[in-house]
């Protein structure tokens, strides 16, 4: 019989904990981390560049803005317009900044993910990689 | 700095086909990135993806609104049955005793009040569901929603009346309608029941459409 990836008791406790709060999606978490890392220079181009660097594939700026707007609607980031510049065709940059709530959720997601990772023994991960 | 020009058609498409809040910043970002050596293919990919994402979100948002309006309008015959069941029309008196045109105006106003109450009860239900799902309300302009909802309902009701006059319903229909139960009218999906729901669907959909926010955040210039 194939060993399960995680213990069922852990699985249900994780589901229970995750059901109590809304957690960040993978892309949202990446965006928040990129915005935190870039600090004052967090606008579309460097944010997308940062994601491309770490994910290793082209990122659509449209999807970056869609996710950032979603995060803004949730109150996890705020945005403000900079001054228009000629190299941007006279169009302003939109700077993003993580709110306190955004930071709290990043920490919370890391805490949950770390707990989740700790429930998986190394040999189980290796077993599943070998199967592929 | 490279001063190459990006594909003009792509830029035009981005400016005209993507009607969302972050358009200016996104256009500027694409121009800036293109100026640093990105290819025309990359620019086209970004523009098409941005338009597809914006349109997809819009359709999804509107689709949910239309779906709710369709589901909500299913209950409208039951709502119309309530004044009959509880004799609410007696509250405004016997309008047939009032001389024309006041009798007609009274009937119109009474019908409109009943309809608006139903539509705004639907708005309250939709708002509650929206609040539970997203943790926020979706209102943009209540006045606009109310006015356009009323106008759309009135036009749809006028169309329904015109159809009723042109294609008179069976003589026994009114009698049959009065004898139905609340559950019975909800389950009734004949031609006349569907036609009856039509103004309520249009009114609810239009009200929600004009109330719905596009999540366009307020922009402030950085200091």
Verbal overview:
The complex is a heterodimer of chains A (132) and B (223). Chain A is of the alpha+beta class. Chain A has 6 helices and 2 strands. Chain A has helices at 8-20, 26-38, 44-55, 61-73, 100-118, 122-131; strands spanning 77-85, 91-98. Chain A has a two-stranded antiparallel sheet with strand order 1-2. With 223 residues, chain B is mostly helical. Chain B is 72% helix and 0% strand. Chain B has helices at residues 8-17, 23-35, 40-74, 76-85, 102-134, 142-166, 173-179, 182-187, 191-211. Chain B is elongated and about 80 Å long. Classes of the chains: A alpha+beta (132), B mainly alpha (223). The interface between A and B is medium-sized, with 31 and 35 residues.
CATH topology category name of chain A: Arc Repressor Mutant, subunit A
Total separate domains of chain B:
2
- Please outline the major beta sheet of chain B: none
So, the CATH homologous superfamily of chain A? Winged helix-like DNA-binding domain superfamily/Winged helix DNA-binding domain
| Number of E strands of chain A | 2
| Mean pLDDT metric of chain B | 80
Radius of gyration of chain A: 19 Å
* Biggest interface pair, counts: A-B, 31 and 35 residues
Total helices of chain A: the number is: 6
Which sequence of strands runs across the widest sheet of chain A? 1-2
Biggest sheet of chain A: strands, sense, closure?
A: 2 strands, antiparallel
What distance separates the N and C termini of chain A? 17 Å
Spatial shape of chain A: elongated
Report the portion of residues of chain B in β strands. under 5%
Structural class of chain A: alpha+beta
The string of secondary-structure elements of chain A, in order, is HHHHEEHH
Number of strands of chain B: 0
Strand content of chain A: 5-15%
């Amino acid at each position: 019989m194939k060993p399960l990836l995680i213990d069922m008791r852990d699985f249900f406790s994780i589901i229970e904990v995750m059901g109590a709060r809304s957690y960040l999606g993978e892309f949202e978490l990446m965006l928040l981390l990129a915005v935190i890392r870039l600090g004052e220079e967090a606008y579309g181009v460097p944010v997308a560049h940062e994601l491309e660097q770490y994910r290793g594939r082209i990122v659509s700026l449209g999807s970056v803005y869609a996710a950032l707007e979603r995060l803004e609607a949730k109150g996890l980031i705020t945005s403000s317009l900079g001054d228009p510049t000629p190299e941007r065709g006279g169009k302003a940059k939109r700077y993003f900044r993580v709110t306190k709530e955004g930071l709290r959720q990043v920490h919370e997601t890391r805490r949950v993910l770390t707990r989740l990772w700790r429930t998986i023994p190394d040999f189980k991960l290796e077993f599943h990689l070998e199967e592929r | 700095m490279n001063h190459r020009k990006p594909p003009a058609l792509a830029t035009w498409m981005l400016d005209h086909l993507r009607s969302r809040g972050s358009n200016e910043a996104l256009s500027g970002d694409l121009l800036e990135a293109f100026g640093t050596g990105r290819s025309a293919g990359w620019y086209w990919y970004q523009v098409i993806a941005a338009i597809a994402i914006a349109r997809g979100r819009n359709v999804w948002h509107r689709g949910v609104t239309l779906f709710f309006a369709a589901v909500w309008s299913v209950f409208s015959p039951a709502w119309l049955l309530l004044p009959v069941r509880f004799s609410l029309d007696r509250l405004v008196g016997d309008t047939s005793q009032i001389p024309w045109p006041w009798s007609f105006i009274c009937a119109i106003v009474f019908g409109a009040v009943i309809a608006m109450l139903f539509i705004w009860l639907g708005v309250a239900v939709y708002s509650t569901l929206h609040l539970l799902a997203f943790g926020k309300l979706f209102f943009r302009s209540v006045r606009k929603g109310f006015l356009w909802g009323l106008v759309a309902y009135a036009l749809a009701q006028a169309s329904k009346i015109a159809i009723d006059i042109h294609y008179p319903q069976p003589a026994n229909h009114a009698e049959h309608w009065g004898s139905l139960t609340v559950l019975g009218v909800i389950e009734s999906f004949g031609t006349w029941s569907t036609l009856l729901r039509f103004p309520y669907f249009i009114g609810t959909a239009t009200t929600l459409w004009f109330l719905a926010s596009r999540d366009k955040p307020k922009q402030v210039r950085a200091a």
